[in-house]
């Protein structure tokens, strides 16, 4: 009797291990030239899909703030679940209406390539239906899953802050370069203009030009 | 017993592994790079594979990719030429942006390949299934251990963010100082250039006996 039950218990525990190993993907960045799509599989209907994306600018020397990137989430049925137009970074969260492969697309309406750093997390909390189906699933597993999801939201926020910090750092570097190079160019221009002035005045008084013109 | 167990693990792994990784499409002849910011001295594991477009049939021979993983400073950590799946694992020596670049060879007619890529860095690389198997650990205890690991990684990340904020603040203060000094210097340059002009023209006119 015991030998027969052990494989079944191992099976269930393996199932539980794997179901709780639904790891989030780490924060990745892609360069968006026109459209870049990322696919993520949602296992259960009703799962909360959350994440964030930040546009980390390239060193665009002349332009001001980036106009924005469009973000669309398409469900496996083909309709768009979430849209965000013309932002330089945002957080999103929605409940998946059905299970399947979801498409997360970034669209760059302008020609300059932009780097987008994104993080997507699919979170599943076992509900009463799952509890009823599987007798080894305790109500405490629900609490643990909720705790895990809460910690995931903290991690997600941290990744968002880190990506924004990276963008801030790029802006600061660009500011520093501009301060140095623009002021040096200004000094050079000033010296050139004043020496041009001096040469012109000297030329006005030179003997080769008619003396009476002055 | 062990064999059936591992088979079951593998079967369930393929069932659930799709939810762990990111999938993207690669057109033939194009390059796609995915980068990740990884701290130094942390373990990182990556698995990539081309998804078979036809279920049940063998993969078309032409579906191969070349991958190279480089660090922010240009050192190559992994290189594989014309493979359809593989994995890499290394410990990072330097912190910064690590790039995993995929090249697809030219096909005729142009084809699009779907690639499954799973890149874990730092705390998420720990293989929990091994820990569970080895120690005969209770499920609940395993879950709580995982939560504890997550919390400590959050704590470390907060320290890291704090350090970066400090660096940013120092950078801002230095920019502020520079701007102050540069403005004062610009005024000095302007005045000195004007003074030089006046002095030069005065001596010039005196030489010409106009003044």
From TrEMBL, chain A:
| Record's keyword terms, sorted | Coiled coil, Membrane, Signal, Transmembrane, Transmembrane helix
Every GOLD domain range: 35-122
Which Pfam families does the protein's record reference? EMP24_GP25L
How the protein sits in the membrane? Single-pass membrane protein; Single-pass type I membrane protein
Q: Where in the cell is it found?
A: Endomembrane system; Membrane
Where does the signal sequence lie?
1-27
From the record, give the transmembrane residue ranges. 179-201
UniProt-listed SUPFAM superfamilies: Supernatant protein factor (SPF), C-terminal domain (SSF101576)
Keyword Acyltransferase attached: no
Looking up PROSITE patterns in the UniProt record yields:
GOLD
**Cellular compartments per GO CC:** endomembrane system; membrane
Similarity comment: family membership = Belongs to the EMP24/GP25L family.
Q: What is the name listed in the Swiss-Prot or TrEMBL entry for this protein?
A: GOLD domain-containing protein
Q: Which organism is it from?
A: Trapa incisa
Q: What is the lineage of its organism?
A: Eukaryota, Viridiplantae, Streptophyta, Embryophyta, Tracheophyta
TrEMBL record, chain B:
What broad class describes the main subcellular location of this protein?
membrane
The residue ranges crossing the membrane are 179-199
Could you name the domain of life of the organism this protein comes from?
A: Eukaryota
Signal peptide region: 1-21
Kindly give the membrane topology term recorded for this protein.
Single-pass type I membrane protein
The protein's location, in the record's own words, is: Membrane
SMART domains of this UniProt entry?
Answer: EMP24_GP25L (SM01190)
- Looking at the record, the residues that make up the GOLD domain are 31-121
Q: Which GO terms describe its cellular component?
A: membrane
Q: Which keywords does UniProt give here?
A: Coiled coil, Membrane, Signal, Transmembrane, Transmembrane helix
Give the similarity note: Belongs to the EMP24/GP25L family.
Name it.
GOLD domain-containing protein
Originating species: Trapa incisa
């Amino acid at each position: 009797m015991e030998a027969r039950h052990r494989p079944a218990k191992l099976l269930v525990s393996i199932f539980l291990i794997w179901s709780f190993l639904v790891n989030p993907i780490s924060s990745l960045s892609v360069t968006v030239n026109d459209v870049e799509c990322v696919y993520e599989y949602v296992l259960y209907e009703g799962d909360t899909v959350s994440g964030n994306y930040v546009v980390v600018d390239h060193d665009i020397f002349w332009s001001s703030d980036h106009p924005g990137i469009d973000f669309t989430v398409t469900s496996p049925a083909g309709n768009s679940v979430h849209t965000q137009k013309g932002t330089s970074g945002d957080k999103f969260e929605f409940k998946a209406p059905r299970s399947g492969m979801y498409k997360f697309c970034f669209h760059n309406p302008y020609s300059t390539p932009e780097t987008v750093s994104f993080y997507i997390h699919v979170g599943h909390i076992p509900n009463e239906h799952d509890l009823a189906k599987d007798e080894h699933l305790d109500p405490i597993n629900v609490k643990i899953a909720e705790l895990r999801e809460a910690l995931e939201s903290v991690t997600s926020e941290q990744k968002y802050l880190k990506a924004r910090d990276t963008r801030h750092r790029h802006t600061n570097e660009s500011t520093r370069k501009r301060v140095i190079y623009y002021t040096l160019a200004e000094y050079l221009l000033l010296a050139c203009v004043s020496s041009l002035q001096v040469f012109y005045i000297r030329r006005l008084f030179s003997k080769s030009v008619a003396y009476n013109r002055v | 017993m062990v064999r059936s167990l591992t088979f079951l693990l593998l079967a369930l792994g393929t069932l659930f592994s799709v939810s762990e990784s990111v999938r993207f499409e690669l057109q033939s002849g194009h390059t796609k790079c995915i980068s990740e910011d990884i701290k130094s001295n942390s373990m990182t594991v990556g698995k990539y594979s081309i998804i078979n477009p036809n279920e049940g049939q063998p993969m078309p021979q032409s579906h191969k990719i070349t991958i190279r993983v480089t660090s922010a400073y240009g050192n190559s950590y992994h290189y594989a030429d014309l493979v359809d799946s593989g994995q890499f694992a290394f410990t990072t020596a330097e912190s910064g942006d690590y790039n995993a670049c995929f090249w697809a060879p030219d096909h005729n007619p142009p084809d699009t390949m779907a690639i499954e890529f799973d890149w874990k860095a730092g705390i998420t690389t720990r293989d929990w299934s091994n820990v569970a198997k080895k120690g005969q650990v209770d499920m609940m205890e395993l879950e709580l251990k995982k939560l504890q690991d997550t919390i400590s990684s959050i704590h470390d990340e907060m320290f890291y963010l704090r350090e970066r904020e400090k660096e940013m603040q120092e950078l801002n203060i230095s920019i502020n100082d520079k701007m102050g000094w540069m403005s004062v210097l610009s005024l000095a340059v302007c005045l000195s250039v004007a003074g030089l002009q006046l002095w030069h023209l005065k001596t010039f006119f005196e030489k010409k006996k106009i003044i």
